[in-house]
Design brief:
The strands form seven sheets. Strands 6, 7, 10, 11, 12, 13, 24 and 25 form an eight-stranded mixed β-sheet that branches. The radius of gyration is 26 Å and the shape is globular. The chain contains 17 helices and 25 strands. The N terminus is likely disordered. By secondary structure, the protein is of the alpha+beta class. The protein has three domains: about 150 residues, Sufe protein. Chain: A (Alpha-Beta Complex); about 350 residues, 3-Layer(bba) Sandwich (FAD/NAD(P)-binding domain), CATH 3.50.50; about 200 residues, Alpha-Beta Complex (Flavocytochrome C3, Chain A, domain 1).
Length: about 725
């Protein structure tokens, strides 16, 4: 083992707070080992026993207790409660820490081991807690403080320099729900056509299966045949009406369709079949179809929730329980694939596509284990990529997105979708479709959580999002100010850019519609008079709260004198700015003083007139920006991930950059090709579950097609 030159003490502590609250691309870059060297240490002697320390999980709400057991010289055990109500991280993601990180720490006797990709925040919290426990044990045992350095070592990559060559029928890169569905379908096609054991393999950079799909809850599907049959032939949605709405919403300003028409029709024709296969053949459970869509002016019965019927306890209808059921479906697929000669490799990332230019054929992938350093050359008859786009890659976010949307976005969930396979596809001449579109955003958040006020627990009430006791806190005051309709919002230049109702709440097929248009962030500007009004009257203009970005919220429409204290704390924490004049405020946030001053002047004119002639906000929400001091709160549209990707045909074959010729043996599903259904002038199509619907359907069809191709049945 080699010692690391720079201790992670400050990196873990500081970056953990930043990463847990920011969730932005690149926030964790400082947490990787930096070089090598030696540190002064001394003899290790610990007081045997158990030492417990806590960290706050990624929701910013609940503490996770981490208990280490030590003898005089070593860590012998690491424990976290198994009851999910007793710790603060997503259950099925944290399981990867139990399965992989805990043994890794004990085996290497180090808190500087590799974190679990996809569970980085949880990993960093565990490592910090382990370090704190060791410091306590060393102090209790009378050791010199420098003895902690004995546990601050970076393990050597045990298999670095080794290369294994594998020959498989089908390789799936990315093991979220879509990739797993594709594995199963490819395996079934091969078995059906060859009658023999088949080699279908999957790899994923994360330390667990399920990916970002573990955090999602519904799929869009058009008239699943088994449900139409149950209804005596009555369809759930008028096919042509829904299709026409889709085409209307994806028609650009120039009057042309920005989606790929044949792929939208393909989705309409196949999503119901995918839904039927999942439910009737694979045993996936869906709740009753929604007959109303909260996010669209046109309501269609096309949204199917992943639903748990496990009513064993009061937490059974929480999202955590849904994740547990979904995880069981994922594991069933893996077991079936392994049972017929396939398998999976986790913490293994693909980074290069093997391509024979002469025959225009993808022949495999180069990959490496990020922990051991082992290299793989995986020769495959067909390759399916389902890596979730490139939202975790700052360089690609800047180079591939339209300049209006380039930059580091706040992200909901894991950021292992680093785009390596997107870049690898571009390197061999793959074509793209709407790859420049805005990331998929659904809510508004702050750069980081405010931690000034206590978290209060509500006995007897459970929040579906966390599957844990409901909470409330005034830490959400600055967030609620950003989504309040009577606010005044400007872009980074200081220009008002939309109707604040639409920015915060969503109208039509865009959610939220205006916030994403100005890129990764905007500012909510308030005068002292407006702040005083909030304190006296409370929040009377918050219609849709940011459920996935808050810490529980607080009571609305009652006097809230804590607003001033929350604003002052926000300024101190760096998520808000305060100035005596509008011009000084503009300078503080990096906006143009003249632009912001002109925007305020124009807005106040509209307020006095009682008519928002610029963006149409209702007069009741037009509240003048009065006298100073003034405040600006930084707000960030929160992305689920990128949507644009490769151009594909109805078989999910990736097309060359001529947008006509399929690349043999190369398929892209899920967010790696979702752009074919979208418009690069819109953020998303908010009919409910569209991304999941496309992902499941593309995995259903693409996996089957790849299996048939690998079996030699069709081109």
């Amino acid at each position: 083992m080699k010692e690391k030159g720079i201790s992670r003490r400050n990196f873990i502590g500081g970056a953990l707070v930043s990463a847990a609250s920011l969730g932005t691309v690149g926030a964790l870059s400082a947490c990787s080992p930096q070089g090598s060297g030696s540190k002064e240490t001394s003899a290790v002697h610990m007081q045997p026993g158990q030492y417990t320390n806590t960290y706050v999980g990624h929701w910013g709400i609940f503490e996770t207790p981490v208990t280490i057991t030590v003898n005089e010289t070593a860590i012998t055990a690491i424990d976290v409660p198994t009851d999910r109500t007793q710790y603060g991280d997503t259950e099925k993601i944290f399981q990867a820490c139990r399965d992989r990180l805990f043994p890794r720490i004990i085996e290497n006797q180090s808190f500087s081991v590799d974190t679990i990709t996809g569970a980085t925040i949880s990993s960093m919290g565990v490592l910090q807690a382990v370090r704190s426990g060791l410091e306590q044990a060393l102090e209790a045992g009378g050791s010199d403080p420098k003895a902690i350095n004995a546990f601050d070592v970076v393990p050597e990559k045990a298999e670095e320099g080794e290369t294994e060559e594998m020959n498989v029928d089908v390789l799936v890169v990315g093991l979220g729900s879509f990739g797993l569905v594709a594995m199963k379908r490819a395996r079934d096609a091969l078995l059906r056509e060859t009658g023999e054991a088949c080699s279908v393999w999957g790899i994923d950079k994360a330390g667990y299966i399920g990916g970002q799909s573990l955090l999602t809850h519904e799929m869009n599907a058009v008239n699943p045949p088994h449900l139409v049959e149950q209804r005596g032939g009555e369809v759930l949605v008028d096919y042509d009406d829904y299709l026409n709405t889709w085409f209307t919403d994806t028609t650009g300003a120039d009057g042309t369709l920005k989606c790929k028409e044949e792929m939208v029709r393909w989705f309409f024709d196949n999503s119901g079949l995918a839904n039927r296969w999942l439910e009737t053949e694979e045993g996936w459970e869906f709740g009753s179809v929604k007959d109303k869509n909260d996010f669209s002016e046109s309501n269609y019965a096309v949204v199917f929730n992943y639903f748990s019927t496990n009513g064993m306890d009061k937490y059974s209808n929480s999202n955590e329980n849904r994740r547990a059921v979904k995880d069981s479906w994922h594991r069933k697929i893996v077991a079936e694939v392994e049972g017929t000669g396939g398998g999976i490799l986790l913490e293994t990332e693909g980074y290069e596509i093997l391509y024979d230019k002469a025959s225009n054929t993808v022949t495999g992938v180069k990959a490496r284990n990020t922990v051991t350093g082992k290299e793989y050359v995986i020769n495959a008859k067909a390759v399916i990529i389902s890596t979730g786009g490139f939202g975790g890659n700052a360089d690609l976010m800047n180079s591939l997105l339209d300049p209006r949307w380039a930059g580091n976005w706040k992200q909901n969930g894991a950021t292992q979708n680093d785009g390596k396979m997107i870049k690898a596809g571009l390197d061999i001449g793959a074509g793209t479709f709407n790859i420049d579109m805005s990331p998929i955003t659904m809510e508004i958040g702050l750069p980081k959580y405010l931690t000034h006020f206590p978290i209060n627990f509500i006995d007897g009430k459970i929040t579906a999002r966390t599957g844990r006791t409901s909470t409330w806190t005034y830490n959400d005051i600055p967030l609620y100010m950003c989504v309040s309709i009577n606010s005044f919002a400007v872009d980074k230049t200081g220009k008002r850019f939309g109707n604040e109702y639409a920015i915060a709440n969503g109208i039509g097929t865009q959610m939220p519609p205006n916030a994403w248009e100005v890129g990764p962030y905007f500012y909510s500007v308030w005068s002292q008079g407006q702040v005083n009004q909030l304190m006296e009257e409370g929040f009377t203009a918050v219609k849709r709260t940011a459920a996935y970005c808050q810490q529980g919220g607080f009571e609305l429409e009652v006097p809230t004198p804590e607003v001033q204290e929350a604003l002052d704390a926000s300024v101190e924490s760096g998520i808000a700015w305060k100035a005596d004049t509008i011009e000084e405020l503009a300078s503080a946030i990096g906006a143009d003083p003249a632009t912001l001053a002109a925007s305020v002047e124009r807005y106040n004119e509209l307020c006095a007139k009682g008519s928002d002639d610029d963006f149409g906000k209702d007069a009741e929400y037009l509240v003048e920006v009065g006298s100073g001091p003034y405040y600006a709160i930084k707000a960030m549209p929160v992305m689920y991930g990128t949507g644009g990707g490769f151009d594909v045909d109805e078989k999910l074959r990736v097309l060359k950059d001529d947008h006509v010729t399929p690349i043999n043996g190369f398929y892209a599903i899920g967010q790696d090709s979702f752009g074919v259904l979208c418009s690069n002038e819109l953020n998303y199509l908010a009919y409910g579950g569209v991304c999941q619907g496309y992902g499941m359907t593309s995995g259903f069809i693409g996996g089957n097609e790849a299996g048939l191709y690998a079996a030699g049945v069709q081109a």
